[in-house]
Amino acid sequence: MDAQTLMALRDPAGLPFFPEVFMGLGVLTFALHIFAVQLMLGASGLAVYGAFTPNPHGRRLGLAMLDVAKVSVSVAIVIGVAPLLFVQVIYDPFWYTANVLSARWVMAFILILIVAYLAMYLFYFRNTQGDAQAPRRSAWAIVVSVVLLLVVGSIMHVLTREMLFPEDWKGWYAPDGVIDASGDNYKAFAPFRFAFFIAMALPVTGAWLIAMRHYFAVRPNRYPATYLDFAGRLGRTMMLGGTALVILLGIGWMATLPEKVAGFGASVWVWPPLLGLLLAGGMALKPPARDSAGSYLGLVVLLVAGLLVAISREALRYAILVGEHGYQVFDYPLNMDWYSTVLFFATFAIVGGLTLTYLIAVVWNAGRTEGVYTPGPVVDRLGTLSIGAILVWILQFFAIGFYVWMQ
Ligand code: HEM
């Protein structure tokens, strides 16, 4: 497909702000999304392990990680919306074509996600009563949940890949010249690339376990040292073996790139993520002591390594769509909209910043307190400010709406 046709498919309304900024935010929010996805998969994987292992520590850990999985599903979904907005804004000709070609899968995405989440809750409700170390009931439900979550992820993967092959769209839409408007397409699945992102769940969740060992060490009555050390050891193995596996899968991904960008695997873009992953694996060789605050460093390093992966992944997309197909993403017509841009950043920084800081402060302190946690004056004030910021946001929303309506 020639560049002019691709460009003609762009939104005639143009962009409300510079494409470079949308691209940057897309990369950043994708890194956060995939980090939450990886934690979700790793935590629910450990819940599956806990459902079948005879080891009482393993059973207990599985149930604890089920709580992490429940929360990270919702975090992954909420943060997933952000890269969705950015990718469809700057790469709309590609993203929407992929969505139309695979329309049935796009619609099934939500339904499958709902069933996956319900299955997770079914397992949770069947097992929250009684002894945390007792054998699990309805173990099949958590297995079904993990499998369906992977199906959901594979749909996102296929959409992301289909958009990279404009030269194949016609063949997929009209195989042998006969139009197939069913939207059944599930094309361009790349096993190494998909497995790479999924396998990152191992080191990410491993680092989480090492952090958890330090976090709960202040509550020895509830979390005995033997249990926390079991979690720490498992975390270390997952981090070490996981980074090795991820690097191997990354090599497989680069070795099986489409011919049109086969050289990308030997470019400078692969080095920063590789170094990030090696650093994470190296950290697992000598894990911090249970009482060392350095226990959280592994998570930070993996978050940064994930961001480096996201940057290189974007460079790969750029090399294909701009380099090979001539799509001028940075020449996207601009129709500057300062109000929505300022509102976006202010919402992100002020409303999001205050509310998230408040919630994280409460959750962090509550988890490390024996008995009932009562927030101090600073956290309390933060809560009041968060509610105030949300109220001001709602007021400005209606005020601007009425103002525009009156014009
Ligand atoms: C809960 C299960 C989910 C899993 C396992 C999952 C997994 C993934 C994976 C593996 C990718 C990378 C695909 C690739 O580059 O090959 C991805 C990308 C993406 N995901 Fe998710 N995802 C999930 C849910 C969601 C949800 C609910 C949303 C949106 C609301 C979402 C939005 C996105 C977007 C927009 C991308 C592509 C971003 C881009 O190309 O810039 N995901 N996801």
Model description:
The chain crosses the membrane at residues 22-52, 73-91, 103-125, 137-159, 194-216, 237-255, 261-281, 293-311, 338-364, 385-406. Keywords: Membrane, Transmembrane, Transmembrane helix. The structure is a single chain. By secondary structure, the chain is mostly helical. Helix content is 74%, strand content 0%. The chain is built from 14 helices and no strands. The protein has helices at residues 3-8, 19-52, 56-90, 92-101, 103-127, 139-162, 166-173, 191-199, 201-215, 225-255, 271-285, 297-324, 338-367, 377-406. Helix 8 (191-199) runs antiparallel to helix 10 (225-255). The two termini are 43 Å apart. The mean pLDDT is 95. The chain binds protoporphyrin IX containing FE. Protoporphyrin IX containing FE is lined by residues 26, 30, 33-34, 37, 73, 76-77, 80-81, 83-84, 87, 113, 149, 152-153, 156-157, 160, 193-194, 197.
